[in-house]
Write a structure and sequence with these properties.
GO terms for molecular function: siderophore uptake transmembrane transporter activity. Keywords: Cell outer membrane, Ion transport, Iron, Iron transport, Membrane, Receptor, Signal, TonB box, Transmembrane, Transmembrane beta strand, Transport. The chain folds into three domains: 96 residues, Immunoglobulin-like; 136 residues, Ferric Hydroxamate Uptake Protein, Chain A, domain 1 (Beta Complex), CATH 2.170.130.10; 637 residues, Beta Barrel (Maltoporin, Chain A). It is 5% helix and 56% strand. It has seven helices and 57 strands. It has a 22-stranded antiparallel beta barrel. A five-stranded mixed β-sheet has the order 10-15-16-13-14. The chain has a five-stranded antiparallel β-sheet with strand order 30-29-28-33-34, with no helix packed on it.
Length: 937
């Protein structure tokens, strides 16, 4: 035999043996009713092969060498299966039946843990919202969706943004303008924003659409060691990633709300393989929304686009992802009410439809950040908040061999939030000197003329000469102004910008029964804030009109108290111009120790260092006769606050150690007990510097709040009944509290000195699902709790900036405000063949509206109803109604109906002395009815 023939023979034999060593695996997956399941995710380890079932429930793996493997099947709403298979023949046929997982307890979760873990065996309280549940609601923003998660308090009365979210009484610093203070809002494992401050919160840059596959929520517990400066909890929105064949969906939503205000929205998502082991998912939305309450402008418009590209290989994967958000929305202010015992609307307003926002107009207000430039800011309240977010990221997961695994997630984002809206909507009587002196004029007494700023028609002419000696004003001509008052409101202009880098690096090593995880989280943000407040003259009525106001005394020059749009006291109410650099660096280590097949323990430690460095302008009224334009007859620019050239610097570092210890005991394959104790910390956010130091040096850093939490729970996953129940105790210590105050005499807005306080909460959370008969499911979740202001002091400024009459009020032992004793969701679903129906009831118990316990917000219920019909294989229709019975429930309270008031001022003594006074409340949003057409391909 020649050499060439011999070589050819060897090659043929080699490839013959190689080909015969490759095996074929065929399989089929069905549910318990015998229906085939499409889209089941199937993986084989340790070779890291993956696929999904086709429309016939079939799957196939080729070129698998002989050996022993673990095959795992997972699908949304079904229990995961992991079993060992032996590949020894040329062809292997497999068949699987997936059981319903009523509460996703068999699902893998990645939130609140350093490694993916079955929810049933995690040693913390975890809740999951998956696609089927997300399709049942049309949330008015991110916060509104999260009220479906047990134990989560949500105030979403303001609309899509500017909401409050917290759990287990960890709430005190979660103010309305920083309502996510203790919790981390995440997308795919990283925070949406690194830092927070007034009017700059993560929900500004987050929207929900079809690119969200599921939401994982951790309440307290392990958040102390797994989140960046957010020990109160994590809400992680996970995106769709892998589709093994081209498919997608388009949702067209149309509906009406309130007084026939319309909503139009289009959502889309598409996924497909784009090469060998390469996959892409892309999607987004665009919507035009008139809003639930009445405004003369479109309340929200805009949308976002997201995509990710992922490459799988034998040892892991690589993912690139991006988001572009460009969106306009707004937020509702409060409504006036009377009757402290049973609040009812006042001054012709409605809990259902009144918004009291200024109407849209185009004004131009001087911007005095730079004294050497004559710059102006356009101001139009119809724009609300314009949020833009451009994010790019890359994530890797790489097996390094010998049981080592490396994971890294990095993203860069550029964020802009521009506010052009109104703040406050208080009643200001025409007998109140504030109505005139707030313009910035020296002595606006005499004959005052109010014109409609839009039409130019004179609405009223009054003589206010007697108000300084206690006499009433007098109408001279024209009709009266509604309610003999104007609205105490401010034209609020804010520029927020931030460039952020966030990275999380994790290294895992399995050693015997230990899974040890260590790594580092890093975040860097370069932020700037400019805030300017001017007064806005407007009628005090359900649909406010802007007022052009002049002082027209006989034989005297006409003094313009406002410009032609109704804006007055240009930039004279408040001024903030600040810059800050934030760095957050943390290192952590965690040991998940499997002591026996039933008992596991995990211990975690986190060291975090947060550095804030920045500066803040000092300011003073502009000193020039006649104000900014030098014209003594234009009073509206006389009081502008401008920088003095001096800056107050801050440069502080916060270091702390957090720890958490948990344990899980597996009773059997369907139930487990768990326990955890955590000690977390919350470093101050940038609002500590921006809000609390007005023209004074920033000499000391803020207090680090300390959070201790303990929980003990049980989880059970049965065939027709599943539940979790968690008893918890939480303590929040060193809470810095300062009030927002307004002094009428000097037209000055200020914050009171900070008081450090403590709260304690005990309670029981539960989550359950029950399927008594086929196709019919009950869901019930909620919390009972008792929250106390263990140590609580409030600084009372007495309504003036002078400190001589100040006092500190002690409310220790009172009930913690805005924490209901009972809160739950009860719902049911019916699904068979082409039709599905659901009905949900959300109950919010009574809540004290301030720490003085002077006023309680009544309990309320809201109901939602929906049905879905499958028209054909590709097309379905969905009808949803939220707040079905148009509940008038009150979600929030702002105190007395006067400019600059706050909730803490409404003490029992105040209410007894002022039983007929009006006050400001925030009702829940009105009924919304939507028809959604869904096309799948």
């Amino acid at each position: 035999m020649s050499v060439n023939k011999a070589l050819l023979y060897v090659i043929v034999i080699f490839f013959y043996n190689f080909s015969t060593a490759q095996q074929l695996i065929n399989g089929e997956v069905k549910d318990v009713e015998g229906n085939v399941l499409e889209g089941v995710n199937i993986t084989i380890q340790p070779i890291n092969f993956g696929t999904t079932t086709d429309g016939y429930g079939k799957f196939k793996f080729q070129n698998v060498t002989k050996g022993t493997y673990k095959i795992t099947l997972s699908h949304i709403g079904y229990k995961m299966i992991t079993q060992e298979i032996v590949v020894s023949q040329k062809k292997l046929s497999l068949s699987f039946v997936l059981e319903d997982d009523l509460m996703n307890l068999q699902d893998v979760v990645v939130t609140g843990t350093f490694e993916p873990r079955i929810q049933l065996m995690s040693s913390t309280s975890v809740s999951v919202l998956k696609t089927n549940m997300l399709q049942q609601v049309y949330p008015q923003g991110t916060a509104d969706l999260l009220q479906n998660i047990p134990g989560t308090f949500v105030d979403a009365s303001a609309g899509e943004v500017f909401n409050k979210v917290y759990t287990r009484g960890i709430s005190a610093s979660a103010e309305d303008d920083m309502g996510w203070y203790y919790v981390s809002l995440q997308e795919d494992g990283l925070p949406v924003t690194l830092s927070q401050y007034a009017y700059y919160s993560p929900d500004l840059f987050h929207r929900i659409d079809l690119m969200t596959e599921k939401v994982e929520a951790i309440k307290g517990g392990s958040a102390a060691i797994t989140a960046m400066n957010a020990p109160g909890g994590i809400y992680n929105f996970r995106s769709k990633i892998t589709e093994n064949e081209l498919n997608g969906e388009v949702h067209l939503t149309n509906g009406f709300q309130g007084n026939n205000n319309f909503l139009h929205k289009i959502d889309f998502a598409i996924g497909s393989p784009i090469g060998k082991n390469w996959f892409i998912n892309a999607g987004g939305h665009y919507r035009i929304d008139d809003g639930s309450r009445d405004t003369d402008f479109t309340f929200s418009k805009g949308g976002q686009f997201k995509f990710n590209v992922i490459k799988y290989h034998n040892q892991g994967h690589l993912k690139f992802y991006a988001k572009y958000l460009n969106d306009y929305t707004n937020r509702y202010t409060g409504v006036a009410a009377v009757n402290w015992d049973n609040p009812t609307p006042a001054f012709g307003q409605s809990f259902s439809s009144t918004s009291l926002l200024m109407p849209g107009f185009n004004a131009s207000i001087p911007d005095r950040r730079n004294l050497n430039q004559n710059n102006f800011n356009s101001f139009n309240p119809s724009k609300g908040v314009h949020a833009k977010d451009f994010t790019l990221g890359v994530a890797i997961s790489q097996h390094l061999g010998n049981h080592w695994l490396l994971r890294n997630n990095f993203k860069f984002s550029k964020k802009i939030a521009n506010w052009q809206t109104s703040i406050s909507n208080a009643f200001v009587s025409l007998n109140n000197p504030l109505a005139y002196f707030i313009s910035g004029a020296d002595f606006p007494i005499g004959q005052v003329v109010f014109k409609d700023a839009k039409s130019g028609l004179e609405l009223a002419r009054i003589n206010n000469s007697g108000i300084l000696v206690g006499e009433s004003f007098q109408y001279l001509s024209g009709d009266s102004l509604p309610n003999d008052a104007i609205m105490g409101t401010s034209a609020w202009y804010i520029d927020n910008e931030a460039n952020e880098l966030i990275n999380q690096f994790i290294l895992e090593k399995d050693i015997n029964n230990h899974s040890i995880t260590t790594g580092m989280s890093m975040g860097f943000s370069d932020s700037s804030l400019f805030t300017q407040g001017s007064y806005g003259y407007a009628t005090y009525e359900p649909n406010p009109r802007m007022l052009q106001v002049t002082l027209k005394n006989p034989d005297a020059p006409i003094i313009m108290l406002s410009d032609t749009h109704g804006i007055s006291n240009y930039g004279g109410l408040f001024y903030t111009n600040a810059n800050a650099k934030v760095s957050q660096i943390a290192t952590f280590i965690n040991d998940h120790f499997k002591i026996t097949d039933r008992l596991t323990v995990d211990l975690g430690l986190r060291y975090e260092s947060i550095h804030h460095k920045g500066n803040k302008d000092r300011y003073a009224p502009f000193q020039q006769d006649g104000g900014l334009d030098g014209n003594t007859n234009t009073a509206y620019d006389n009081g502008m606050l401008t920088p003095t050239g001096e800056k107050d610097m801050f440069n502080f570092t916060y270091n702390y150690i957090s720890y958490s210890a948990g344990s899980t005991y597996k009773l059997n394959n369907s139930s487990a007990l768990f326990a955890r104790f955590s000690h977390g910390n919350k470093a101050p956010e940038l609002n500590y510097y921006f809000n609390n130091f007005s023209n004074v040096p920033i000499l000391k850093k803020g207090a680090i709040q300390k959070i201790k939490q303990a929980e003990l729970g049980i989880k059970y996953s049965g065939n027709n009944f599943s539940f979790t129940s968690t008893a918890f105790w939480s303590q929040l210590k060193d809470i810095g509290i300062a009030n927002f105050e307004f002094e009428q005499e000097s037209n000055t807005i200020f914050y009171t000195p900070i008081q450090l306080n403590t709260s304690t909460t005990v309670g029981l959370e539960w989550e359950s699902t029950y399927t008594p008969i086929q196709h019919f499911t009950f869901r019930f979740n909620g919390v009972v709790q008792n929250a106390k202001a263990t140590k609580w002091r409030i600084y009372d400024a007495g309504g003036t900036a002078i400190t001589d009459d100040d006092q500190v009020m002690d409310y220790s032992g009172n009930t913690l405000p805005f924490t209901p004793n009972l809160m739950f969701n009860l719902g049911n679903e019916y699904h068979k063949n082409k039709i599905s129906i659901f009905f949900n009831w959300h109950y919010m118990g009574k809540r004290d509206a301030n720490v003085a316990n002077g006023f309680k917000l009544p309990s309320y219920s809201t109901f939602s109803l929906g049905t879905k019909y499958l028209i054909n294989k590709h097309l379905s229709a969905n009808f949803i109604v939220t707040n079905l019975f148009n509940s008038k429930g009150l979600a929030n309270f702002y105190g007395a109906n006067s400019f600059g008031a706050n909730a803490n001022g409404a003490t029992r003594t105040y209410i007894e002395a002022n039983p007929d006074d009006s006050f400001i409340v925030f009702p829940v949003l009105q009924r919304k009815a939507l028809l959604k057409l869904i096309y799948n391909f």
